[in-house]
Amino acid sequence: MKYFLQRLAFYLFTAWAAITINFFIPRLIPGDPVMALINKNRGQIDSHAIASLYILFGLNKHQSLWDQYTAYLAKLAHGDLGISFSNFPTPVSTILANALPWTICLAGAATIISFALGTFLGVLSGWLRGSRLDFVLPVTTFISSIPAFWLGLLTVATVIAVGSTFPVSGGYDPGLIPHADTTFIGSAIEHSWLPLGMLVITTMSGWILSMRNMMVTVGSEDYITVAQAKGLSDRRVMFSYAARNALLPNVSGFSLAIGQILGSTVLVEIVFNYPGIGYEMLQAVGSTDYPLMQGVFLCITLAVLVANLLADIAYLILDPRTRKEG
Question: Do the beta carbons of residue 276 and residue 103 sit within 8 Å?
Fold first, then answer.
């Protein structure tokens, strides 16, 4: 319990530090978002309302940076992420509520598929070491060394070059309205294949490598020799004895992968114009939209922190040594 409370306190402090950095860094970016909004809506915004807009967006020039910071923390405590500059007057929370499900589904599906497929191939490669399956590891390692967004750009260029009708942009067909019906769901799945594939093949090698190494280590244990001496089938020994014990490090590292794959997902969404938080972040940076940038960064930061906290809890449950003092 003491270990858990120490880790929780550490992550709470890290979250506060991330929120603080999240507030100050966007304000160091050159440009005036309020003036950009006024120029964008020329003739629709009264020039006398400029001061009110600065106050509304938390950029009151008569307030010190510290006062703006404390006001930001107070709003954040009530779940108020502010109003988007580029989508005025839409609240940031509304934009994120529409974008987050796309990112969660894409990153979640990629993590699960990558974990399951990589772990399975790692089990086979480790148990049948020296066979042709060992060729899978260097191939996947080479592919994973290529950034997902760069591989995505190459894929888009290839698909367009061959004249394929496969969708390479957007999250669904134009003209469709997001709704829980078969037409929309089918279109969304079709548009997700390319970004999902990029994420899976660039993150799978880590699972294969770690699982293969653990299978090689576990394969030399005495209980494996005893299981084989009892006449159990090779398949049962491989999955029920070796893989079951070799899987523990991968399970504890699963939550860490969620945070790691989220960074790649953001870049892949930008490449494929996928309607997730990565695409919204690109729009926010381009329009100097402070509140939207802060909202996106906050979601990413909290996701990584929660993933790491879950990893610590998993270690605490799976490895009794972490529960011992000294």
Answer: yes
CA 288 from centre of chain = 23
Enumerate helices (H) and strands (E) in the chain, giving the number of each.
13, 0
Task: Give Rg (Cα) of the chain.
Answer: 24
Q: How many Å apart are CA 270 and CA 283, to the nearest integer?
A: 10
Alpha-carbon dihedral angle through residues 87, 92, 93, 98, given to the nearest 10 degrees: 40
Domains and CATH numbers, the chain: 18-77 (no CATH), 97-323 (1.10.3720.10)
Reported for 149-152, long-range contacts at CB under 8 A and 24+ positions apart, including other chains, are 149/264, 149/267, 149/268, 149/270, 149/271, 151/198, 151/201, 151/202, 152/194, 152/195, 152/198, 152/267, 152/268, 152/271, 152/272
Res 324 pLDDT > 80: no
Residues 33-54 as b/e (b if ≥16 CB within 10 A, e otherwise) read bbeebbeeeeeebeeeeeeebb
What's the rounded Cα separation, in Å, for the pair 42 and 304?
A: 40
Half-sphere exposure of 214 (CA within 13 A, CB side): 24
183 phi and psi, to 5 degrees?
-65, -50
Q: Are 169 and 273 contacting, i.e. CB atoms less than 8 angstroms apart?
A: yes
Q: What is the DSSP letter of 63?
A: S
pLDDT tens-digit series, residues 95-119: 888 888 888 888 888 888 888 888 8
User: Buried (b) or exposed (e) across 227-245, using 16+ Cβ within 10 A?
Assistant: beeeeeeeeebbeebbbeb
Decide: pTM greater than 0.70.
Answer: yes
- Residues linked to residue 312 through DSSP beta bridges, in sequence order: none
